Amino acid sequence: MGAEQPLLELVPRAPATALAAIIRAARKVRCDRIAQLVCASEPKTTIERCGLSPGIRRGHPGRYARILLRRQGKRIAVTGPVISTHPSTIDAFLSSALLWFTRTRERTKPPFVEHLWLIVPEALAKPLCYRVALLRESLRDVIQLFIVDDELRTLSPVPCPELWIRKLTRFPPVLAAPLSEQANAIIAEAPESIDVVHSRHGETLRYFGLPFARVRSLMSVERVWFGIDATRRQLLDDSSFHEWQNLLRDLREHRCATTLDRRHAFYRTAAEAWLESLLRRDITRLDPGLIIAPLHAQFRTAHSGKLGIRPIDLLALRQDGRLVVIELKASEDREHVLQGADYWRRVEAHRRRGHIARAKLFGDKRIKDEPPLVYLVAPTLRVHPSFHTLARCISTDIEIYRFDLNEDWRSGVRVMRRMRVN
To answer: Does the pTM exceed 0.85?
Structure first.
């Protein structure tokens, strides 16, 4: 109504290569400033090499600075993010740093690279410290952490805290949540394909892991909203019943192992959730020593908050009472190893304090007084090439096993190979 007068500004179209060049130049400036800041804080240090990491795609600028310093007859590798980052991306950063450091040490002629310095903003310092504590001792001894301010003016070293933090929130008792009438009616449409995930606000129904309906109770009346797109969900009533039937028909046709159109969105979306739903029905397909129920999917050890804590894919218990942390991947993911190790740390911290036993996560079954196992699961041809390099960086106190599945796992999960990787 005249309160605002917007201004529309027309600018010339710029090619993607020009935009990438601008972004690369800005990130290179921050990379140079980090290198100069490190040299200023360390006497008798010179910059030997300064550049950016490779981008996600060919020609894209990298996200991390990669600096090689020389001081008193030895080299120091320095790396840190040159863009704004969230704590949830800390696994990607540390994986990139470890791979670059390992390859640089192997390829560089004397003097050798003896130290790795990680330069991060304050928000990343705490989660990074906890992950560095999970590395093998010989690697921890050569890594040093620094905090840098946003203006890249000050640099301060960070001592790594103890691995087992003192304060942890206890788990609330796990109660068996009964299914609503609406959820039971929907499951009856395809009981072999539909499962339920309970939340504080109601129930989410998934078709082979793909959420397609939600049941909520409003004023003691159960209502169902359906739709794949969260922004376009509809209330299930007489006027939308036809669309509901169309959605179920499309799911049956396209989200199945025998579909003719493997490019369809229903087939390709949420592949990890699909794999998770198959294992939730029978976890013994992965390991016959695991108990079938209870089995906790998308298990949260804490609220995400500022640390970007993500839920564990599956938390299971073996027949011998040993906990098992299961991390699933349906495609190549460089963060697979570090994610599994971090989940191990959080579960082990709660196990040591008795929180898992007191919360009766597994009923009255005895939990063995030993650290949990880590199962890293992926199809045989979808394991990242750097998997074993990163796995060898993890402390041998953490038992990590790699499970290779058949490529056609949608037709039925079979374990093709199992091995200890660290």
So the answer is: yes
